[in-house]
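Hi everyone, sorry if this is the wrong subforum. Our group has a chain we'd like a structural model of before ordering constructs, and none of us has done structure prediction before. Sequence below.
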Amino acid sequence: MSKVLGMGNALVDIITQLKDDKLLESFGLPKGSMTLVDLDTSNIIHAGTAGYKKQKASGGSAANTIHGLAHLGINTGFIGKVGNDELGRFFQKDMKNSHIQPILFRSVNETGRAMALVSPDSERTFATFLGAAVELTVDDLSSDIFRDYDYFYIEGYLVQNKPMMEKALRLAVNQNLTVCLDLSSYNIVEQEREFFFSLIKNYVDVLFANEEEVQALTGRDAEEGSSELNKMVNTVVVKMGARGSLIRLKNDLITIEPRRSKPIDTTGAGDLYASGFIYGLIRGCDPETCGRMGSALAGRIIEFIGAKMTESSWENLRREINSMESACRNIQPD
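Answer:
Right subforum, don't worry. Here is the predicted structure as tokens:
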């Protein structure tokens, strides 16, 4: 079976449930966005939410997607950088416990962490201190890392180091990997439109984005924007939350209904959607089935706090996904 290599900011999520959105305003954080902060600001937010319910989990967008694929039985690896500290050891242990091959470089600085602030309506806002994660460099990457993998999944958050991000994509393409890019956050896309256009044109096979990111990149809505992007990339997937998703390929538009669920926290919904979609691609399923697999995972994860589910929930999801897979006409053999 195909193997998937992920690359992204290696972060530990500190997930906090808010009573209202007043704290977001006091911290100057736009609701639903990802804002980069320094260590002092991260500590201030941590202290300012001291009385709130919190939990900790290894995270980062690409890492969440890789975790999802690993739980579906796909052989996976993950490239990232962490500190030689408690959070770094926590991150690596969590990867190994999920049967993911950690390709982690070490830094003298602290492991990055994302303060994930969850509003009562389940929307999440991130205040992210990148720490060691941002120190992943061009020199850390070599073609040997990409050997023996078939898919490469990379998050747009890595745009803070453009030469490193482009080298990773170039190495993946040179090794004939199928390249999947998630745009990650609308405010980052707004700042780096031309660079993202360049990456999409030159390296990407499957593009994941939400409506706001498509708008930020193209200035158009999901349908028109995905059509424009489909001229540059084979497959465009637009995640639309409670309204489902759109899949655009070869000028065909496929609409995927959302899974019925009782949302508590949207953290990881887009990441787990990508897990299901890529799993379907690996198994040779048609695009609609891939989208339904993604929707199944996204709809389930939002019923939990954070981007991790219980093993019993994964068992149920695997049965559901296997049933969808059995209905595919062209299942790829192991």
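For your construct planning: The radius of gyration is 18 Å. Residues 3-9+61-109+138-326 form a domain with the UDP-N-acetylmuramoyl-L-alanine:D-glutamate ligase fold (CATH 3.40.1190.20).
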